[in-house]
Amino acid sequence: MSARTEVELAATVNGQVRAMDAVTGATNALDWLRAQGLTGAKEGCAEGECGACAVLVARPDEQGGTRWTAINACLIPAASLDGAEVVTSEGLGTPGELHPAQREMAVRGGSQCGYCTPGFVCSMAAEYYRPDRRACDPGPERGPNGFDVHAMAGNLCRCTGYRPIQDAAFALGEVPDDDPLAARLSRPAPAPRATVLDGETAFVRPAHLSDALAALAETEGAVALAGSTDWGVEANLRHRRVPLLVALDHLPELRTFEVTPERIEIGAALTLSEIERALAGSVPLLEEMLGQFASRLIRNSATLGGNLGTGSPIGDAAPALLALGASLVLTSVRGDREIPIADYFTGYRQSVREPDELIRSVRIPLPLLPRSSFLKIAKRRFDDISSVAVAIAADLDDGVVREVRIGLGGVAATPLRAVAAEDALRGRPWDLGTVAAAATVLASEGTPIDDHRASARYRAAMLEQSLLRFHASTTEGVAS
Ligand SMILES: Cc1cc2nc3c(=O)[nH]c(=O)nc-3n(C[C@H](O)[C@H](O)[C@H](O)COP(=O)(O)OP(=O)(O)OC[C@H]3O[C@@H](n4cnc5c(N)ncnc54)[C@H](O)[C@@H]3O)c2cc1C
Ligand code: FES
Ligand code: FES
Predict the structure, then answer these.
(1) By 3-state DSSP, what share of the chain in percent is helix, strand and coil, each rounded to 5?
(2) Best mutation site among 102, 159, 165, 166 for ligand 3 pocket (most ligand atoms within 8 Å of CB)
(3) I need a labelling partner for 435 at 20 to 30 A (CA). Which of 50, 106, 217, 344 fits?
């Protein structure tokens, strides 16, 4: 990583290097792009919900090449694009020579008012260039061309309706050899660049963890930033401003992934999409959780460090990690320490993490308990925050509950282990009698409240149902 000390931020957008003049740490990438005259990307919500702001960035893939990755420009600071290669809808094609995603949207009636269309075509283009798209088996949520419809789960359209948009996506063909964006994939993504932007809201992207820890320790009120999917909402909707943002997203020490016979260790700054690819289904509970986490657009930026860093009682990672018996590695200038996730949360948005500590990684002990389930109750199936989340991992060998761990979200001020329900199951036969009794115990765990997402009674009922449903999935083949 090349270190720089002067303010000379620049990004390559649609092949043209653009200096980031008049940018502060509080300027978001969407506003900057639009101020450049690139008004294709729109602001629909400014909180990651609609995808009208989607653009493509060149990110490293696992083979040393590049992956075109769609992200929400409204959520990230413009300064975080320093050194990046960006493609907006204007860079995909021109009115005379439309990109295949643009052409299919036009000819199949996928666009009416057009407000959402630039965002849709960027999400579609990312999926169009996904290297293993053709290799995928077509299925109910994939087109005959391997197009995963969930690639567009973070894009909303208020007027066209989704059928013509899906038709357009499923009509995309093979990527031709002479496609310039496809040709870019075989070369490495831009090298991470250390960034320094002084000013009222300063922004730094240190090259190493020690520099990030020092920057956080030196400036009171400094905030660490990973994928910025939580921070972006704070900044846009709650107008939160801080003296310094310290970007962690390129820190090599937080981007590790390691599997040993004893554990899987996941760096806190890997994006959730990167984690999905690295795990490749090897931790079914995480695969199930990640598949229901927000949308592909959000998962392309969001991290485990950010999800746990907020201390939120309704984050989806914590219940799953509780059920997996995971621990967190916290790091500071004093060194590293490992904390079981069951001991991490201390109160509403509070944890044992000291103000100068970062989450470095998440450790999942091996072997995994063989059966698992992640049940997320939300108002929408995708792109929504949980009302209740229940993660269960169990060893049910010979029809007896040899071991069980249950992690809960949304039923107390913190995520928690359902210890009483676990005790009501452990060592007992895995039959309906045991499960029904334990489900009643589970319904009384936590201190659920009434809020705009769900009533306390509904939350308790969902806890009870989750265990009965898990039992049915193991005995009757009902989907968990
Ligand atoms: C539209 C939308 C949908 C969403 N859906 C879901 C969902 O389904 N489930 C869910 O759980 N969440 C959801 N979220 C919330 C958010 O995406 C997640 O919490 C995400 O994991 C945050 O990660 P991030 O890297 O973007 O965090 P950031 O926004 O970068 O940071 C969030 C906080 O964590 C701190 N932080 C970041 N990294 C670290 C670290 N390594 N150590 C210590 N602190 C750190 C930051 O200082 C900051 O306070 C959604 C958000 C949006 C906008
Ligand atoms: S403007 Fe709606 S997701 Fe960015
Ligand atoms: S075409 Fe109008 S919002 Fe989608």
Answers:
(1) 30, 20, 45
(2) 159
(3) 344
